[in-house]
Amino acid sequence: MDDHRLTIVSNIQVLREEIAELRAQKKTVAFVPTMGALHEGHLSLIDFAKEHADMVVCSIYVNPTQFAPEEDLDTYPRPLVDDIRALEGRLTDFVFTPTDNEMYPDGYTTKISVSGVTSPLCGKSRPYHFDGVSTIVTKLLMMVQPDIAVFGEKDYQQLLVIRRCVTDLNIPIEILGAPIIRDEDGLALSSRNQFLSTKDRETAPLLYQTLTKLSEEIKETGGDLSELIASSTSQLNKAGFHVDYLELRDTKSLAPIIELYEDQSARLFIAAKLGKTRLIDNIAV
Ligand code: PAF
């Protein structure tokens, strides 16, 4: 019989004691931070984490400081019971579900602010977002103190921000990126996809189709890429998207790439609104 048990912890002190116990048993620990509303993309991170450590800790916390006042904090989905069932199904060992009071003590004023990789792409349209992300992730990493932490490549810029943050603060935790999981029609899985209307859900796969087509064109054409990118942007806008950005950038520094040279490591990044839902995606070129 399977005697696997998921332990639910919402108190920081209890979490620290549980992890100390694992350490005393010489177990390695992998950590997967999430905001819940778990889908196959998140669960693939749990599977990935399990391949790299003895025990897996997942956190579910909708972090208020990474949402701007006009964003969707209040309506962000919070299906905790379903999430816990899904984590049990993937043999997760611990789930940490702290409260706002626990995470942000009364009168808190401290934040972690990474510069450089936070400036372009989502950093332009969501100027507070990455400070909120790096602050909460640093706090969670200090609480869990895992050997590794896993982040999805769907939020590729976030992955780079966390890597920069952990390197700069000399935090001895390995940050691993895990591949994007897509629906059969190519749409990258996201907790926000459930907000797409039926019609918008039909249109949504065009985002990934455009990225793959554009990536091929860039590799074939070379030279100045601005026209190719402008034409793809206009096609998406005509199809009903409001493209925030569509850009080719260096995989590590996120420096813009105007002309692609051989051996250059590049990625296409896109963010676009469809109805009220903001979708992001990226692909290696
Ligand atoms: O990617 C997310 O779900 C969040 O940004 C994270 C990393 C859990 C921090 O709140």
Question: Could you please describe the fold and organization of this structure?
Answer:
This protein folds into two domains: 7-178, 3-Layer(aba) Sandwich (Rossmann fold), CATH 3.40.50; 191-284, Pantoate--beta-alanine Ligase, Chain: A,domain 2, CATH 3.30.1300.10. Strand 3, helix 3 and strand 4 form a beta-alpha-beta unit. 38% of the residues lie in helices and 19% in strands. It has helices at 12-24, 40-52, 80-89, 100-103, 122-125, 129-144, 156-168, 198-203, 206-221, 226-238; strands spanning 7-9, 29-34, 55-60, 94-96, 148-152, 174-178, 241-250, 266-274, 277-284. The strands form two sheets. A six-stranded parallel sheet has the order 1-4-3-2-5-6, sandwiched between helices. The chain has a three-stranded antiparallel sheet with strand order 7-8-9, covered by helices on one side. The protein is of the alpha/beta class and 285 residues long. The chain has ten helices and nine strands. The site of pantoate has 10 residues, from strand 2 and helix 6.
What is the topology?
Elements (H helix, E strand, L loop, with lengths): L6 E3 L2 H13 L4 E6 L5 H13 L2 E6 L19 H10 L4 E3 L3 H4 L18 H4 L3 H16 L3 E5 L3 H13 L5 E5 L19 H6 L2 H16 L4 H13 L2 E10 L15 E9 L2 E8 L1
Parallel strand pairs: 1-4, 2-3, 2-5, 3-4, 5-6
Antiparallel strand pairs: 7-8, 8-9
Helix pairs in contact: 6-7, 9-10
Bound molecules: pantoate (PAF).
